[in-house]
Amino acid sequence: MVKYIVLVVFLVLKFFTLDNCFFWDNIAGYSKPASYLLEYGFLSFVYPPDYVSEPPLAHMYLAALWSLFGKNLLIAHLSVTLFSLGVIWQVYRLCEKLNTKYTPYIFLLVLLEPTLSTQLILISPDVIMCFFALLSINLLLENKRGWLALSAFCLGMVSIRGLVVCAGLGLGYLVISKVIDKKSFKDAFFYVFPSFIPVLLALGAWFLYRKLETGYFLYQPGFEYQEHRELASLNHIIKNIASLAIRMLDSGRIVVWILLFVAVIKMGIKNFISFVIHSRLSIIYLSVLFTMSLVTIPVTNPFGDRYFIVLYILLALITGQLLSKIYETKKIRVIFISMILVLVSGNFWVYSERMSKAWDSVLCHLPYYSLRQEMIAYIEEQGIDVNDVSASFPLDSFFSDTEANTDNRSFSSLNLDKSQYIIYTNIYNWNDESIKTLHADWKLQKEFKRGLIFIQLYVPK
């Protein structure tokens, strides 16, 4: 019953977000590529250098819907809402596999994790990736290798991150077959490998096609995010490790780690190690963590909370299962409710303006959409040309890409020395020097603020 209640509540809440535009990386990662395919044809998935280089399945899906029903925000929202419902369903199926009578509590614990609950209401291809990841995990646990082949194919073709998660699932499946099911390595390999042949063939064909078209397997010259795809120095690797640790603990997730640590202490290290060795979910978690770490820690790309959404889900499931084993009925319910409340509060863990925040992973960013519209309306009322106003990410995209319409206006590129007007918001995550320069050399003309979010218009002093 609880899953149906959650599905209905989600749909009601989703209804109030249907006017929200594309946000943050979803503009470059979902809207722009789909628009490009819609304009130049569905086989034009080797994008220009200034586009994100990703496998095209999600982009082709959205472009097809726009082609059939018209390019607008409603269709974009519906494209993801179907998968949001699927994520909720797959989470419940995983909870049922824990064999505990506290399934409703663990179900809510997972769904109310800030990154997951926020991503579910955005127009985000990460929701599509998350659905196929969870579906693949359920199929893996059920040894439905034929359906797993199809799900893994979709997972790997949605995004590079989906490919990395897919690799982690393949590794985890191999370890499970070897360690838990006691197969020889040869038997385990030939048992697992066929399920991942379709995705490997598809990705191989995609990489080869890119090579033939551009001369490069992945990133061609002029790639806009090239500085984020370099090998990191030792100092940068250390910073990445620290950043990964912070991501795991931020937005209320620290409560999951604390309770996991308490569970380990109560059951004993030896029993915990035995649990991990015999827990399929734990092996999958460690395998995905390993593959994700391989592609995030050694490179310069800054990573956000949503990168690890599958890990957050698995960790909450594993922790919930452990807690249900070691605590009595009355106490465990109090613990679960307390954990849920802390996670919900994580949506409002906003730090100093000078500290960056993964705004697409916390619900407190929601006022941004109406504030953006209010600022645009104010600029138009004042007779200010939009092109005379400078903005930064994520406000610097064409309105047509942000709002899925035909409005080809955009704010100009940011120039703190020459701009006539500057829009500033705490959504930007600017560095200290830029914020200092703005406050020193510019004067506030107008501010719109709601909740923890503000958008300001500045003119030179």
TrEMBL record:
The keyword Transcription regulation does not apply. InterPro entries: LipidA_mod_glycosyltrf_83 (IPR050297). It is found in: Cell membrane. It is a multi-pass membrane protein. Keywords: Cell membrane, Glycosyltransferase, Membrane, Transferase, Transmembrane, Transmembrane helix. Its main location: membrane. The chain crosses the membrane at residues 74-92, 104-135, 147-176, 188-209, 254-276, 283-301, 307-327, 334-351. PANTHER family: MANNOSYLTRANSFERASE YKCB-RELATED, MEMBRANE PROTEIN. This is Glycosyltransferase RgtA/B/C/D-like domain-containing protein.
